[in-house]
Amino acid sequence: MRMGIALQLLFTGLGVGSIYALVALGFVLIYRATNVVNFAQGDFAMLGAFSMVVLCIGLQLPYWLAILITLAAMLVFGVLFNFAVYYPLRNRGFQPVIISTIGASILLENGVLAAYGPQPQTLPALLPFQGLSIGPVFLDSQYLLILAVTVVMVTLQYLFFEHTLLGKKMQATSQDKEMASLLGIPVARMTMLTFVYSSALGGLAGILVAPILFVSVGMGSSIALKAFAASIVGGFGNATGAIVGGLALGVVETFGAAYISVPYKDAFAFILLILFLLFRPQGLFGEKVAEKA
Amino acid sequence: MLNRMISRITLAAGLSMLGCFGRAAEPLKIGIVAPLTGPAAESGRYQTQGAKLAADEVNKAGGVLGRPIELVIEDDQTTNPGIVLAFSKLAGDKDIPAFIGSVRSTQVHAMAPDIQRLGKPVMIGGTDPQLTHMGNPWLFRFRPNDTYSARVIADYGVKTLGKKKWVIVHSTDAFGANGMKNLVEALKGMGVEPVLVQGYTNNSQDFTPVVLAVKQSGADVIGSYMTFETDVGIFAKQLLQLGVKNAWVGSPSIVTTTALKLAGSALSGSYAVTDFNRDSSPTAKEFAAKYEAAYKSTPDLFSAWPYDAVHVLALAINNANSLDPQKIRESLLSVKDYSGAEGLYNFDKNGDGLHGYNIVKNDNGKIVFITHVDFND
User: Is residue A290 part of a domain?
Assistant: First the structure.
């Protein structure tokens, strides 16, 4: 019984954590490419989820087609976001861009609120079965899917950044823009690609969490706060760190809630964050000297 | 949130009628604070719709003191600072004699000091009993308070369902925490000590720890005070997934339209106390039909209480034949046996209009009226 409970908590913690991880990954990519935190990252997830509701429930399209259209729409949205929110301010330092992303976040949330109203929507789960019961442990099919997708995305991302020319160009851009442009890498285009990819990634996260957390205007921002904490725990700007940080945060808060106190569940996530800021500010995987002169 | 939505709705149905006197009667403004944005934005829409429906009817019947009602709506953003700001904006308008406040106790508490300073009547829907028992004479409640919901939950669960091992699941906000206290108290009055009292914070993304705690406690019935329907939806689904099949008697949030949509079959078989049920009285039935015709959506408590509040307020001002706050107050307190959508209003000296609840059952997604329990004290 005791063991079963711990396993159940571990599974749920990892499931919730992988949601944080997916959103954190988007944070990290944009941070690396532009040195700014994109506060609208959570709203990318919200947009993806709403798009699914519109296509799947409203227009009655098949689930797989709705996913494809949503991801394609998120790619286009990434281009728009890049040109509307980041590009005009790119030479003005990081503060105006951060404010710009906060503005975009407010605009997106209220735009969706005006268009669809405040009523939370439901989206059916992708898999036709509820989940698996293994002894006392129930594995929710949607969480299994999220975990699997997270593993796949991390693998793909690793292969892309380490083993393709385009990936290496994007890495070079994020590490040193001036040097990259001296080497003939089109920096502006690389940055745009980063936004496009992060937008699609956020949309994917939204598609995946919608059946669990329901689809509401505020769904993105509540995940984004934890995801932001996760990326700091992992080491801001580090993709592996974002994943590990997200999973760690999910597990810590779930176990903390179960064994210490449920009302303080959110506190455990942020205590972890504070401990890291105090004792290991570079995070799990961060480099000690973040800025290279 | 930096945004602010301000909407003003003028209802001037009575205007043309009065045109023959050479000038149109100036509308009488009634202020409303409602969550138009934020997590409770949905209930805010129901709130304003219920109020508008009533204002329309009042205006068609000749208005208040011969003047049509104009609702002035301010967004409270579902936050405490938001409602304080929204109320102070409305309070600044000297032409507004009375207000429709929030359905959320936390937010009524937040603006209560300002209401006392202003000294004008505010109709509220928050069910924390404290609100009308803390010496603020300007709060008038249009829903039965939580001592009644707790007593009805305990009464029905223990006496009718015969359950003695209780677990209480509650949100840690003012509504949930006070509801929990009242339920513990009500159960104690029947000689029952809950085996587990479990709080959680609003907008939890996962309830696994709560569900496992319920499962381990060995309880046979859940009593709940949950605030947000998204939380209800996630909790209900996870109860089902982890194989918890306890009876469940909850506060109204588990039978709202949204909760039913979000949780689907997971809430089937649960009981809830609710102040609004369309089958509980002819007035309720009539309101439900009119609301559906006007807005094409299902009426629930969020639209029923402001509907009653606008009607009773209009009646009270007409009876007082004055816009003086003190006179409106006395007139409100003297309202007796007014049949509203929420029940029979008999205001007591504290400003509580209703003193009982309906018990309803979720029968495969259909809400079935079981019984109405009224208390005399």
Answer: no
pLDDT tens-digit readout, A254-284: 999 989 988 888 888 888 889 988 988 888 8
- The CA distance from B121 to B129, in Å, is 18
Confirm whether A233 is domain-assigned.
Answer: yes
| CB-nearest partner of B205 from A16, A113, A130 | A16
Domains observed in chain B: 6-144+280-346 (3.40.50.2300), 146-274+358-374 (3.40.50.2300)
Alpha carbons A143 and B208: distance in angstroms, whole number: 13
Closest CA to B231 of A209, A213, A9: A213
Query: How far apart (Å, rounded) are the C-alpha atoms in residues B207 and B210?
Result: 5
Q: Do A118 and B37 touch (CB under 8 A)?
A: yes
Say if CB B209 and CB B242 are below 8 A apart.
no
CATH code where residue A173 lies: 1.10.3470
Residues in A lying within 8 Å of B, measured between beta carbons? 5, 8-9, 12, 15-16, 19, 106, 110, 113, 117-120, 122, 130-131, 138, 140, 212-214, 216-218, 222-223, 254, 257-258, 262-263, 265-266
Domain total in chain A? 1
Q: ipTM higher than 0.85?
A: no
Q: Note down the domain range covering A183.
A: 2-279
What would the pLDDT profile of A177-225 be if each residue is shown by its tens digit? 888 889 888 888 888 998 999 999 999 999 999 998 889 888 888 889 8
DSSP three-state, residue B167:
strand
> Within 10 A of B278 (CB to CB), how many other CB atoms are there?
20
- Whether A40 is covered by a domain: the verdict is yes
